[in-house]
Amino acid sequence: MLTDIEIARSIEKRNIADIAKEYKIDINDLEMYGKYKAKLSEEYLRSHTDLKKGKLVLVTAINPTPAGEGKTTTLVGLGQAFKEMGKNAVIALREPSLGPCFGVKGGAAGGGYAQVVPMDELNLHFTGDFHAITSANNLLAAMLDNHIQQGNALGIDTSAIIHKRCIDMNDRVLRNIVVGLGNKTDGVVREDHFVISVASEIMAILCLASDMNDLKERLSNIIVAYNFRGEPVFAKDLKAVGAMAALLKDAIKPNIVQTLNHSLALVHGGPFANIAHGCNSIRATKTAIGMADIALTEAGFGADLGAEKFFDIKCRQSGLSPDCVVIVATVRALKYNGGVAKEDLSKENLEALGKGIANLEKHIENIKLFGVPVVVTLNHFVSDTKAEIDFIREFCESRNCEFAISKVWEEGGKGGIELAEKILYTLENKEGKFRYLYPDEMSLEDKLYTIATKIYGAKDVIYSPSAKKALERAKALGFDKFPVCVAKNQYSLSDDPKKLGRPENFDINVREIYVNAGAGFVVAITGNIMTMPGLPKTPAAEAVDVDENGNIVGLF
Q1: Which of 102, 234, 370, 381 is catalytic?
Q2: How many CA atoms lie within 13 A of 405 on its CB side?
Q3: For this structure, is 403 an active site residue?
Q4: Contact 204, 272 (CB under 8 A)
Q5: Does 105 participate in catalysis according to the annotation?
Q6: Per annotation, catalytic residue among 126, 234, 301, 370
Q7: Is 370 labeled as catalytic in the residue annotation?
Q8: Is-catalytic flag, 273?
């Protein structure tokens, strides 16, 4: 069996300019990064981000398991399927982070015969967007520490510094560090922290900004610290905004690549959904809507995280309104949620399936809270039995959800036609009435309680003393109208990753709260979630190498 990277290399790529031409994108609207990658020009973006030509379809999933779900693979396969059907469709997805690529998760270019290429470049440096975000973030951190060193005219309280340095790598030893050691000229000694770049506020800002002016306004509103009077100190107070924008001037432009059957894919931004808002950029999604009849995008991890944040943060800030949601599941993952060990998932087990399908049921209910029609797709494995598939089909159809088998991993675009047809049927025959989960004027406590009880199924929200204090300060400073971005483990509807299926009678424990004023939301850290992940005992990086011909191997 060929690996993903071997499959990707077996397909002859076309020059991205030729593919762009098929989508009516002129060569002068491209900024080329070699033969197979390009950024869209500002002129093209300005002419397409507000056209609102196409329907918007969101692809999300049940809670992830070690058995795999295949959300991104399904999204990519749908792009290929619509091309096979002669439909004008464009996919918009996130860029992968180096951390998971070298950790456990691997890349995020799809899989099997449903991939975007060049997959090795996409999963590594790509067009340098993440490096630009990291540099802008760390420039702000350097200017903050330099200001303190040079006399601290703003009266910054070094025990109340909010802005953290970042790196696009899983590196647990950087979570809590001490800086400024050495001579007096080496800076002020203080505790500092790193987050992974995809969890940084600047990543969120890039993905939520509508244009360069909006980007600069958001950058200026980043709270870097509080002064000795308890007042916020902003990035604009450090005069850092212009230089940060200069580093991000190319990164703000969406990238285009191709799938294995040469359909177009927009790839831009990559905030994690378990610790950030989990969606690709507003600019990329709006551009997809402007250039195609059907725009398909994704939201990270399960619908309890990515989809909720897509609706309540991304849609709220952009005016986007989804027309249909696809929930991806697998027989194996549902059986895992029903208590079956990973090594036994290939055996038929209808009893475990009946227990585990409660997880899918909750995600269906969650999407319907937002008034959007649902299509459930089963990412097919050869071990799936007819009885298991029929059970899931009947379960979904009894809940007014269209249902389809997806075989895109094995068959590419042809394996996604059944799902694509169900999406078309839903778009044409099932009108949704999209709504947010909560209004802007609701208090921050009530917003968190609403998310916890209605989306996760919790009975209450418990705050640590420090989180309660931070919540009160956020309200006092006027940030109570912001939506809430919950950082929570992705494996469970609860904040305990061991509680699978559809847990009940649990509390959501909030240990930390802070304001991302530039991004425009309040972050609530729950359970044991970390904003800087660590590597596993055997990192995926151990298998990655470069062969004698300069080809990357072992990436998947």
Answers
A1: 381
A2: 18
A3: no
A4: no
A5: yes
A6: 301
A7: no
A8: yes
pLDDT of residue 106: 65
pLDDT digits (tens, 9 = 90+) for 443-458: 999 999 999 999 999 9
- At residue 487, the pLDDT reads 97
- Among residues 37, 83, 94, 283, which one is catalytic? 94
Q: Is the pTM of this model over 0.70?
A: yes
- Three-state DSSP state, 336: helix
What is the pLDDT at residue 4? 84
Given a contact cutoff of 8 angstroms between Cβ atoms, the answer to whether 225 and 188 are in contact is: no
Confidence (pLDDT) at 555 = 80
User: Nearest-CA neighbor of 355 among 342, 338, 369?
Assistant: 338
Three-state secondary-structure class, residue 39 = strand
* Annotated catalytic residue, options 105, 175, 414, 499: 105
Among residues 37, 39, 55, 71, the one annotated as catalytic is 71
DSSP track, 69-117: --HHHHHHHHHHHHHHTT--EEEEEPPPPHHHHTSSS---SEETTEEEE
Q: What pLDDT does 210 receive?
A: 96
381 is a catalytic site residue: yes
137 secondary structure, DSSP code: H
Sequence-distant (≥ 6) Cβ neighbours of residue 340 within 8 angstroms: 347, 349, 352, 356
Q: How far apart are the first and last CA of the chain?
A: 13
Q: How far apart (Å, rounded) are the C-alpha atoms in residues 436 and 439?
A: 7
Dihedral angle computed from the Cα positions of residues 55, 333, 411 and 60, in that order, rounded to the nearest 10 degrees:
10
Question: Token match 């991939």: residue?
Answer: 115
Residue 386 neighbours by CB under 8 Å, 6+ apart? none
- Annotation says 228 is catalytic: no
Question: pLDDT at position 481, please?
Answer: 95
DSSP 517: T
Strand blocks (E) in 360-482 = 374-379, 402-406, 460-463
Burial class (CB in 10 A: 0-12, 13-18, 19+), 168: buried
Q: Given the residues 72, 73, 287, 531, select the one marked as catalytic.
A: 73
Radius of gyration of the chain (CA): 23
Residue 105's pLDDT is what?
A: 63
Q: Is 71 a catalytic residue?
A: yes
Which residues, given as ranges, of the chain have pLDDT below 50?
none
Active site residue: 209, 251, 265, 273, which one? 273
500: exposed, middle or buried (C-beta count within 10 Å: 0-12, 13-18, 19+)? buried
**296, 92 Cβ separation under 8 angstroms:** yes
Residues written for the chain: 556
Can you give the pLDDT at residue 76?
97
CB of 454 within 8 A of CB of 363? Answer: no
Residue 398 structure tokens: 């009894």
Cβ–Cβ < 8 Å for 204, 517: no
A 10 A CB-CB count for 235 gives 24
Model confidence pLDDT, tens digit, residues 327-382: 999 999 999 999 999 999 999 999 999 999 999 999 999 999 999 999 999 999 99
Beta-carbon contacts of 232 under 8 Å, excluding residues fewer than 6 positions away, are: 223, 225, 226, 477, 517
- Position of tokens 């991806």? 328
Spatial distance between the Cα atoms of 310 and 320, rounded to a whole number of angstroms: 10
Report whether 301 contacts 231 (CB < 8 A).
Answer: no
